[in-house]
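The pair is quoted verbatim below.
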Amino acid sequence: MATARIDADTRILIIGAGVVGAALADDLTRHGMTSVTVVDQGPLYRTGGSSSHAPGFAFQTTGSSVMSELARRTLDKLDGLTLDGQWILKRVGGLELACDEERLEYLHRRHNLTQSWAVPSRLVSPADCEALFPGLDRSTVLGGLHTPTDGVVKAVRAVEWQARRAIANGARFHGLTEVTGFRMERGRVTGVDVRPTPPVPGNPSKGHQLPDGTSFLEADIVVVCAGLWGPGLGKLLGLELPMVPMEHCSSSTDALPSLAGFSDEEEIDRPMVRHQATGSYFRQSGERILWGTYEHRVIPVDQSEIASPEDFAQTQIEPAIHPLTWNDLKDGWNELRRLFPEANSCEPAEGYNGIFSFTPDGNPLLGEVPGIKGLWLSESVWLTQSAGVAGVLADWIVTGDPGVDTTSLDFRRFDQAHLTRSASIARASENYDEVYDISHPRNQTKQLRKFATTPFYVRQEALKAEFGTSQGGWERPLWYGTTKANQPAVPRDAWGTYGWSPSISAEARQAASGVGLVDRGAVSVFEVRGEDAAKHLDEILGSAVTLQVNGSAHAHLKSPSGGIAAVLTVLRTAEDSFLVIGSSPEDVWHLRRETPHSDTVTVSDLSSATTALALIGPDAATVLGSVTRGAAPAANSPEAPVLDVGGVPARVVAETASGLGGWTLYTATEHGLYLWDLLVEAGAQHEIALVGDEAFTALRIANGVPAFGVEYGPRDNAFEAGLAGPSTGEGARPGHRLLVRLRMRSDLHAGVPGEPVSKDGCVVGFITSSAEDPASGHFLAFAWVDPEVAAVGAEVEISHLDQRWTAYIDRSRPYHGKFTRP
């Protein structure tokens, strides 16, 4: 276990005694924390939140390696446990159905994901589906995906079991206690205001009552695990939490003859079933079938529509349950009867609209709240990942190292400057609507388009750009419709080339042979200023800042695990001032980390005030020189001066992300459109290529440049990611894979992120990104593979649907650029 960074007697208060709060208390006390308190406004342990009515489905197969890992940890923790002789988890397995050819093909992709994430699975026939769930009409299905280690969790029992162990280890649980406010002092949480709530008849709270008159609880650390009440607590803090409670329709059948004899306690011995083509799912529940569907109108729930503790006490109806809206459920009922004919002999017995939360990307909101020391979030966590999330958060709080890559989980991935309630509802509603849809990694959101645009958008639109969105909602050109390109002579696999256009390779080839112009306007730029600015950066970067004024360097910010927490470009603009160029909104919080010099330093976010364009390729110097007063710095030079570019003051920084060389020009947003027109006109005689994001990706992969947040992150060190040689003192750690680049043997084959890489029939890794090589027409891919197969020339196979495509490793240490200390 890692060394604790907080004292054992640190006062930790957890808001919410659901599946996450109880699990977190359990894990914190197992870490040796001796002062852990949990409060909930409802009675313990059926509090009335989402955990109280959760149907218990726990599937491990997702498109995300970390979400699948969190699900596996949850099931592993609960495996074999009982509460007063009653089971908590039954690993009855999962079964996903395909009723048409498109879904059958998609099951092969799902099966490939299970191989990449090490989830046991097998593709099964219609007869196997019927054998796994007797009564299922085999004639209605074409096949299935069976995941035998998935299971059903009794959520309230899981809560109480973990709470009891936490209490045995010194934790205190208080039901009927509502948090009404937070107290802070000098940017640090000091506790919460509370009030008692009325008891609920027939649902006595099992926790200790707070002493009469208690209105404040002191704490050094407060963790918000409040589930659907999270957005309301966020408002008390002045935060927009990008999560939206949603109503979800579910019901059950009458007793069915084929299930006669199953007691409510035994409840289930058949696999959970997902019929994703119709957004439906069902499972055995004693003699009945419990079922639900996502295929209905989206029903977001405002905080004012959630019953108060007083309403709960009066009606005894749990706040997370609303009346069933039958019209939203009837299509799902008809589909259940088609798949399971025996259901035609009965009627729905009961039902309700349960409430649980969705985020814009479907992932939880975890981590310390920016700007408030000691205040942590663990919100929008489903039962499936609950104990896994709690374990990660406990490690994170106690040791500083969460133990997993939290890039896709950290609350800070959402830029608070761009968050509104309307934006949260629009994106989360889309996520709800598409939760069971066939989804390609390159799918683009349809919501809030043109939400954030760079100054160049009007020109790109006129050039028939195909747009996508990047982090923060920025509208980004993927490729340009005006680019002249030839269609491939032989059609390629449709899934592998989804979201691909021949314009992409044409743009990349033009830039590689001449000059390209790239929109880099969705940029993260921060200013660090003050008399101790250099010392502050010394502490954050872990090395002395020795830059001269107008000098620059690339730097890796290390994570607690020794991986890479951020990739930054540091520029010194004056003796007491630096610009730091990052890759995400999260980077500003790295720079605002408390150091011994923080009091004399100001960190400002200049992202909205700054825009950027990159000139890349061998003719970039000629084009830039034709419009610049004063010489541009040499290629790969650490100089980063402000130059007069056709009258625009622009800071010119060597460009390394594409592998072609050139410069990125940073200027004030108001000068952006003028700068675009200037460079396009100057580059016309050189047939300047307008380069979209997909062509830029193709260039970086072709030139062996991995991307932070795509290829590597906080769990990967520089050597493992191919960013440094052994001379740096880093090496591959035991059990860690290495990043390599693959080349497909055939120009007809394209890899897709998440697809497994195999050697001699054994899975040895997975793909992170892929693109067509502009020079050869063969697809390239970055992949993490086991060290023993990471040698150049090693032949491997890519699993694509039910096929195995041959590829070979053509670069084992991807990047040969130089990352330097600033």
